[in-house]
Amino acid sequence: MIIKTLCENTSVNEDIKAEHGLSFYLELNNGRKLMIDTGQTDLFYENAEKMEVDVSDVECLVISHGHYDHVGGLNKFLEVNKKAKVYVHELGFDDYFSKSSGEIKYIGMDKNLAENPQIVKTKGIFEVDEDIKLFSDVAHETPLPASNSGLFMKENGEIVQDKFLHEQNTIIKEDGKYVLFTGCSHNGIVNILKQFYKNEGRYPDFVIGGFHFSWKNADADADFSYVDEVGKFLLETGAKFYTGHCTGIPAYERLKEIMGDKIDYLASGSVETL
């Protein structure tokens, strides 16, 4: 599997741009082409062209959750790709908000896309095919990231704390290996991995995604005691981790000290072969 990072908060060079968002392009060994998320703007498409990725050839797009920094490029994707199925959790088009400096801001999906014929709404464990599976409904056995505190949803007409029921994770099985894509891990990367184990009877071989230790990559106030505990658990799974985006650079550097070569960072323009 080849993984190309089309969009992330940082970049590998000046030619490839970055933004607060996340988007991956995947090319499986059998030639199938998929994407996970579309970043905050059309930047994923601009970077895709520079990285020799033809977005119109993608046959499957998974939206990890209904936040602007993962779905902002969806209009552009649907403009250039008329064949891919786009898998969105059935709650993905609900109303989601962030709160900063006392101001509530809508950060949800473009509701005009909800009835697009390419959209497939999912829930629970959803099998795309025999090699690709999505799952949500993650049990909260351990604390969620503290940086979730500024994120909200509308429920019964009121603004309440986001429950992240709209977040889904992607499992791809290839050559006997399990690869897990987590988006932002709002439900907690430890909880997601424990749910994976419950569902599959094992841990994944590779895990790719953000851990939401930090709202912005520039933040340096992550709770490192929480990061330390998470890092120890991640090591115990035996998986190889690739992270970025909402993990935050300070938290990643801390994880790197704990996990060594079991974790690496993916920036815009990164290309990894599993």
From TrEMBL:
Residues 20-245 form the Metallo-beta-lactamase domain. It comes from the Bacteria. GO terms for molecular function: transferase activity. InterPro entries: DHPS-like_MBL-fold, Metallo-B-lactamas, Metallo-beta-lactamase_dom, RibonucZ/Hydroxyglut_hydro. This is Metallo-beta-lactamase domain protein. The lineage of its organism: Bacteria, Bacillati, Bacillota, Clostridia, Peptostreptococcales.
